[in-house]
């Protein structure tokens, strides 16, 4: 991997998301490209809202456009300083169109993007993941990582697996992008009802995993409440990297909710890797 996109509202930059992006940049020896988004075509947020979310104090009497420019300049300067202090090579892209469309265009030419689930360009408060983030997850042309609110290292990688092409594709994408994590504990998690059979070829899966990782556990849990059991299991993990496939589709067999990944993003504080088939 060579190019990681760090996605940020130009007015309000998440330090936690940037710190995690720098960690990934060092882990993979990749450049971190800061994509700073300004919704100049349809900015619906008021000057007061922008001041509330900005990282620096407003200049009294300055018009809204000037305030936004000052906020953006401050964030970009902070981005450069943090990358430099972490020893990460960085680049800046300032995008002035519709935020989601700009990110999707950028994603075609990136290996991976990192975003805070709370990133929003709405004029009203939103729950995480926001409408902006959901659109990125559905349409991005590279894997997406939801950054954690707090980060204390990675001791375990949890692959959610149901035998589908999408879940296996996400596992392979993750392995190719993060070869440095081959020494971590690997848990391949499948949740299904008691009368179900595991889809896919278990022996081939085990063979592939053993080639790429040193410490692998295949864990099959039985439960009629797929979503609840998934959340229960993930709540009990610490310092884990969660890997999921096919955002917007059924991830685990017979899941009732259309977007199980959305629930995980909303409730789980660990970093989450999502990739499409």
Gist of the model:
This protein is of the alpha/beta class. Helix content is 37%, strand content 21%.
Could you say what the CATH architecture of the largest domain is?
3-Layer(aba) Sandwich
Mass-distribution shape: globular
Strand content: 15-25%
Major sheet: arrangement of strands: 3-2-1-4-5-10-9-6-7-8
Rg of Cα set:
20 Å
Helix/strand-derived category reads alpha/beta
Q: How many H/I helical runs?
A: 9
The string of secondary-structure elements, in order, is EHEHHEHEHEEHEHEHEHE
How far apart are the first and last residues' alpha carbons, in Å?
A: 19 Å
* Proportion of residues in helical segments: 25-40%
Biggest sheet statistics: 10 strands, mixed
Number of DSSP-assigned strands: 10
The top level CATH class name of the largest domain: Alpha Beta
Uncertain residue ranges: 248-258
Protein name: Universal stress protein
Organism: Chitinophaga hostae
Keywords:
alpha/beta, Rossmann fold, 2 domains, 9 helices, Universal stress protein
What would your notes on this structure say?
A ten-stranded mixed β-sheet has the order 3-2-1-4-5-10-9-6-7-8, sandwiched between helices. Helix 4 (99-107) packs parallel to helix 5 (131-139) and helix 8 (226-235) runs parallel beside helix 9 (260-267). The protein is 37% helix and 21% strand. The protein folds into two domains: 3-146, HUPs (Rossmann fold, 3-Layer(aba) Sandwich); 156-275, Rossmann fold. It has 277 residues and is of the alpha/beta class. It contains nine helices and ten strands. Residues 248-258 have low confidence and may be disordered.
